[in-house]
From TrEMBL:
GO terms for biological process: gastric acid secretion; gluconate transmembrane transport; iodide transport; nitrate transmembrane transport; thyroid hormone generation. The lineage of its organism: Eukaryota, Metazoa, Chordata, Craniata, Vertebrata. The chain crosses the membrane at residues 66-93, 145-165, 203-220, 226-245, 257-277, 304-327, 348-367, 379-397, 402-424, 444-469. InterPro entries: SLC26A/SulP_dom, SLC26A/SulP_fam, STAS_dom, STAS_dom_sf. One of its GO terms (molecular function) is chloride channel activity. This is Anion exchange transporter. One of its GO terms (cellular component) is recycling endosome membrane. SUPFAM superfamilies: SpoIIaa-like. Coiled coil: none annotated. The keyword Transmembrane helix applies. Pfam families: STAS, Sulfate_transp. Its main location: membrane. It is found in: Apical cell membrane; Basolateral cell membrane; Lateral cell membrane; Recycling endosome membrane. It comes from Chinchilla lanigera.
Length: 656
C-alpha cells in the first residue's frame, strides 16, 4: 500500500515538474540560438568557407576597429577590443547568420559627442604626464574610454529594457525609406569625419547642428594646408581598393578565394612608411603605439550615466535599426527567420557585457555583412573564427600596426561605406513607386546630415506616422462582393412580384476613430451608386437615400418613405473578414448602422466576425436576440436569408 502511494506521488510529482523543465528548455533554445544551430553544424561542408570568411572578416574588423575607435575619440587599441567581445556575444544570442557585430561608424560618431563633451581635448595637457595602470596609457585616454564604455553600457541597458517590454513588434514603423535615408546620411557623416585624414589637415572637433557644413567650410578656408603626400596616398589607396574589389566581384565565380586587398594594402603601406620614415620625413600621421594584451575587466563609471543619456538612446536606436535591417536582409536572402525582439536582447548584451572590457558601442556594419556574403560564409562560426585572428592581432601583431598611415586607414573606411553610399540609387525606385516615400527619404537624409543620425531616424518615424494618419482615413473601407451573383428575385403568393435584394459588402480595413466617418460615407455612396444603376430598384434607391443612410445626418426619416420600404424585402451582409481590429468608435458605428437598418425593416447580417467583435457589439448595443446576426461565413448568412423567406411563405399560407 505504501509503495503504491509512493508510486502515485512520484507520478504526480513528475507531471507537475516535467512541463516546467520542458518550458525551461524551450526558453533556453529561444533565447540562446546557438543551442539550435551549433549541435547541427556540418564540419565537412561549412568549416572551410567559414574559415576563409572568418579570416577576411578579421581583416575588416581590425581596420574598422582602429578607425572607428579614433572616430569615437578614444585610443585605437580599444577598437580592437570592440571588434572582439561583441562578436562573441552576438554569436551566442543573435539570430543573424551573416551579421558581423563589432565597432560601427554611426554609434562611434554618437559616442564621440559624449567623449568630446565630458573629456575635451583641452584637458589632455593636465593628464598626459600621468600614466595609469591600464596598458600604460595616460589618464586622459582612460577617462575617454570610460565615457565611451558608459555610453555602451547604458545603450545596452536600454536595448535590454526594450526587449523586456517586447518593443521589437514596433519595428514596423521603421520603413525601408527611413532606414535607407538614415544610413546613407550617417555614411555621409563618416566620410566627412575622414576628410581630415584623407587630406592631412588638422581639423578641430566640430559637432552639433549643421556641423557637417561647418567642417567643409573649415576645409575650404584652409585648403592651402592640404598635405600633398597624404592626398596622393589616399587617392592611390582608394583607386586600388575600388579596382581590386570590383575585379573580385566580377570574377568571384571563377576564383575560389578573393584577394584580401585590405590586408595587402595595410601590410604594403605600413612597410613603405617604415622604410621611408614617412612620419618624420613628410609629417604623415600614423596609427601609433598599439599596446599588447587585454586589461582586466572594470566597471564603467556609473557616476556619468546621467550625463550620457542622450547619446545612449542614440546608440540604442540607431545601432539596433541598422543591425536589424542587415539581419532581416540576411534572413530574406538565405530563407530563415529572425526574431526582432530577440535582436534587442542580442545587441543589448553585446553592448552591456563588452562595456566592462573597455569597448566602444557596437552594432552590425553593412560592409562586414557584405563581405560575409561575398566570401561564402555559412554560419556564425565565421564570426567566431575571426575573433581568433583578432586575438592574435591583440597579443602579437598589434605593435606592428604603428606605421600604418591614417590616410590609408581612412581610405579603407571610405571604400567600405560604398554599400551605404550607393543607396542614393534608391531615389529613382521610390520616385517611380511612391512619391511620398521619395519625399520621406529626401527629408530624412537632410535631417540626418544637418543634425545627427538619431535625429534623422526620429524625424523619419514621426513623418511616416503622420503620413499614415493622414492617408488612413481616406483609404477605401468597403467594396462590393460578387453583386451579380448575389442579387435575386423571389416570387410571393401575392399578385405583385416583390424584389428581395441582397447587398454584400466587404470591409477592407480596420474600423477605428480615424476612418469611421469614411466607412459610413463609403457605405452610403456604394448603395446609392448600385441602386441608381439598377433601374427596377429606383423606388428602393429613393427609400435608402431618404431614410436609411440620411438618418445619420438629420436624425429623422420620412414616414411615407418608410411605409413604402416595408413592402420591399432587402438584406445587407457585411463581410468582416478584413476587419482586423477595431476600437470603441468602430463598434459604435457598426451598431448604429444595424439599429437604423432594423428600424427600416432591413435585415443586416455580419459574417466572418471575430469573437472579440461579437462580444463588443453585444455589450455595446441592444441587438436582436430573436434573429441570428453573426454568421461564420457569407454563404451561411445567405442560407439564413433563404430559410427565413421560406418560413415567411409558410406563415402566409397558414394565415390564408
Amino acid at each position: 500500500m505504501t509503495g503504491a502511494k509512493r508510486k502515485k506521488k512520484s507520478v504526480l510529482w513528475s507531471k507537475m515538474h516535467s512541463p516546467h523543465c520542458e518550458d525551461i528548455k524551450q526558453w533556453c533554445r529561444r533565447r540562446l540560438p546557438i543551442l539550435e544551430w551549433a549541435p547541427h553544424y556540418n564540419l565537412k561542408e561549412n568549416l572551410l568557407p567559414d574559415t576563409v570568411s572568418g579570416i577576411m572578416l578579421a581583416v575588416q574588423q581590425v581596420t574598422q576597429g582602429l578607425a572607428f575607435a579614433i572616430l569615437s575619440s578614444v585610443h585605437p587599441v580599444f577598437g580592437l577590443y570592440g571588434s572582439l567581445f561583441p562578436a562573441v556575444i552576438y554569436a551566442i544570442f543573435g539570430m543573424g547568420r551573416h551579421v558581423a557585430t563589432g565597432t560601427f561608424a554611426l554609434t562611434s560618431l554618437i559616442s564621440a559627442n559624449a567623449v568630446e563633451r565630458l573629456v575635451p581635448q583641452s584637458s589632455q595637457n593636465l593628464t598626459t604626464q600621468n600614466n595609469s595602470s591600464l596598458l600604460g596609457l595616460s589618464d586622459f585616454e582612460v577617462q575617454r574610454i570610460g565615457v565611451a564604455a558608459a555610453v555602451s553600457f547604458l545603450g545596452g541597458v536600454i536595448q535590454v529594457a526594450m526587449f523586456v517590454l517586447q518593443l521589437g513588434s514596433a519595428t514596423f514603423l521603421l520603413t525601408e525609406p527611413v532606414i535607407s535615408a538614415m544610413t546613407t546620411g550617417a555614411a555621409t557623416h563618416v566620410v566627412t569625419s575622414q576628410v581630415k585624414y584623407l587630406l592631412g589637415i588638422k581639423i578641430p572637433y566640430i559637432s552639433g547642428p549643421l556641423g557637417f557644413f561647418y567642417i567643409y567650410a573649415y576645409v575650404f578656408e584652409n585648403i592651402k594646408s592640404v598635405q600633398l603626400e597624404a592626398l596622393l596616398l589616399s587617392l592611390l589607396s582608394i583607386v586600388v581598393l575600388v579596382l581590386v574589389k570590383e575585379l573580385n566581384e566580377q570574377f568571384k565565380r571563377k576564383i575560389k578565394v578573393v584577394l584580401p586587398v585590405d590586408l595587402v594594402l595595410i601590410v604594403a603601406a605600413s612597410f613603405a612608411c617604415y622604410c621611408t620614415n614617412m612620419e618624420n620625413t613628410y609629417g604623415l600621421e600614423v596609427v601609433g603605439h598599439i599596446p599588447k594584451g587585454i586589461p582586466p575587466p572594470r566597471v564603467p563609471p556609473m557616476n556619468i550615466l546621467s550625463a550620457v543619456v542622450t547619446e545612449a538612446f542614440g546608440v540604442a536606436l540607431v545601432g539596433y535599426v541598422a543591425s536589424l535591417a542587415l539581419a532581416q536582409g540576411s534572413a530574406k536572402k538565405f530563407k530563415y527567420a529572425v526574431d526582432d525582439n530577440q535582436e534587442f536582447l542580442a545587441h543589448g548584451l553585446s553592448n552591456v557585457i563588452p562595456s566592462f572590457f573597455f569597448c566602444i558601442p557596437s552594432a552590425a556594419a553593412m560592409g562586414r555583412t557584405a563581405g560575409l556574403y561575398s566570401t561564402g560564409a555559412k554560419t556564425q562560426v565565421a564570426c567566431l573564427i575571426s575573433c581568433i585572428f583578432i586575438l592574435i592581432v591583440i597579443y602579437a601583431i598589434g605593435p606592428l600596426l604603428y606605421w600604418l598611415p591614417m590616410c590609408v586607414l581612412a581610405s579603407i573606411i571610405v571604400v567600405g561605406l560604398k554599400g551605404m553610399l550607393i543607396q542614393f540609387r534608391d531615389l529613382k525606385k521610390y520616385w517611380n513607386v511612391d512619391k511620398i516615400d521619395w519625399g520621406i527619404w529626401v527629408s530624412t537624409y537632410i535631417f540626418t546630415i544637418c543634425f545627427a543620425a538619431n535625429v534623422g531616424l526620429l524625424f523619419g518615424v514621426v513623418c511616416t506616422i503622420a503620413i499614415l494618419i493622414g492617408r488612413f482615413p481616406r483609404a477605401k473601407t468597403l467594396s462590393i462582393k460578387n453583386m451579380k451573383d448575389m442579387e435575386f428575385k423571389v416570387k410571393t403568393e401575392t399578385d405583385d412580384e416583390t424584389m428581395h435584394q441582397v447587398k454584400i459588402f466587404s470591409i477592407n480595413n480596420p474600423l477605428v476613430f480615424l476612418n469611421v466617418k469614411k466607412f459610413h460615407t463609403d457605405l452610403k455612396n456604394i448603395i446609392q451608386r448600385e441602386n441608381t444603376t439598377n433601374h427596377p430598384l429606383d423606388d428602393i434607391s429613393k427609400c435608402e437615400q431618404n431614410t436609411l443612410l440620411n438618418s445619420h445626418s438629420n436624425g429623422s426619416y420620412n414616414e411615407d418613405a418608410s411605409q413604402h420600404c416595408l413592402t420591399e424585402k432587402r438584406s445587407l451582409i457585411l463581410d468582416c473578414s478584413g476587419l482586423t481590429f477595431f476600437d470603441y468608435s468602430g463598434v459604435s458605428m457598426l451598431v448604429e448602422v444595424y439599429l437604423d437598418c432594423k428600424d427600416m425593416n432591413m435585415d443586416v447580417s455580419l459574417a466572418n466576425c471575430t469573437d472579440s467583435l461579437i462580444k463588443a457589439m453585444k455589450y455595446y448595443g441592444n441587438l436582436d436576440s430573436e434573429r441570428p446576426i453573426f454568421f461564420e461565413s457569407v454563404s451561411a448568412a445567405i442560407s439564413n436569408i433563404y430559410s427565413n423567406k421560406s418560413l415567411n411563405k409558410l406563415s402566409d399560407h397558414s394565415e390564408v
